[in-house]
Amino acid sequence: MKCATVQEWMPHYIDGQLSPDMELQLRLHTDSCPECAQWLEEARELAAIWNEEDSAWAAPGLPDFPDLTDSVMSEIERLENGRKERSIQPTAARRRTAPRTSWMHYCLAVGLTLVLVQLGIFENLAYGISEINGHMSSSVGAWLSNTPADK
Length: 151
Description:
This protein is 77% helix and 0% strand. It is an all-alpha fold.
C-alpha cells in the first residue's frame, strides 16, 4: 500500500469505517513506515482535539444558538429580487446601438491590421503561404502517383 493511499484512508481508519482487511493493510503499513506512523499519530491527536471541541459545545449550560439559515436566505432572496427590479431593462434605444459597436470592432480590426502591416509583421506571410502550398502540392502529387489508376 502506498503512503498517499494510507494517508487518504487514515480518517476512515480513525473513525472505524474501514473493512477489517483494509484496517489490517493500513496497520501493517504504519508499522513498517515511520512517516505514516507519525502521520497517524498526528491525525489521532487532531481527531481528539476536534472531539473535545464538539463535546464542549454540547455541554449543558451553554446558550443554544439559533438557526439563522432561513432568515439569512430569505433576506438574500429579497435583496436579489430588489436588484433584479432595479436592473436596466433592454430597450429599443439600446438595440439600435448594437450595430454601431460591431462597426467599431471592424474598424478597430482594420486599423490594427494596417499597423501590423506597417510594422512588417506580415512581411514573410506570402512566402510562407506559397511554401506551404508547394509542399501540399508535391505531397498530393506523390500520393496520386502511388495510387493505382481507376478502372
